[in-house]
Design goal:
By secondary structure, the chain is an all-alpha fold. The chain has 5 helices and no strands.
Length: about 140
């Protein structure tokens, strides 16, 4: 996809905001579907830094709630994309200085990171981890 700023001569400002918001919303849902919630939190935190702390906290809560709803199939990809698109468009209208951050999310490629395991054996007690692990672990004897 070409960066949004290449098409600005063809579209009105309002149309550009809609395109940016819609593309970013699609990537938000893609991040959720690919299990990249940590990366998504960072992106959302960066976007919503232009608003109030309440707006930022609400957006970060929505990431968690929407990811859970998507995984549990309580909502669809289409519904979430529309919801986030509307939210980002409203936010962009109120905070035009967030355009660059939203555009960055809209243009960023979302890759599906998978872990392929051909065979795995686990002997003894303790955790068995396949894939990336982020956080801390405590082992008690």
């Amino acid at each position: 996809m070409k960066p949004i700023h290449h098409v600005t001569g063809l579209l009105m400002l309002e149309d550009i905001a809609i395109v940016i918001s819609t593309e970013a919303a699609g990537n938000i849902v893609a991040y959720m579907l690919n299990g990249r919630v940590d990366a998504l939190r960072a992106q959302i935190g960066k976007i919503f830094r232009h608003g109030t702390e309440e707006e930022r906290a609400a957006a970060l809560r929505s990431v968690e709630d929407d990811t859970a709803a998507l995984i549990q199939r309580k909502t669809s990809e289409t519904e979430l994309t529309q919801q986030w698109g509307n939210s980002l468009l409203s936010y962009l209208t109120a905070h035009p200085e967030a355009r660059e951050d939203i555009e960055s999310l809209a243009c960023s490629p979302v890759t599906n990171k998978t872990t392929n395991i051909g065979s795995m054996n686990h002997y003894g007690s303790g955790p068995q981890i396949a894939g990336d692990y982020h956080g801390s672990m405590t082992f008690n004897r």
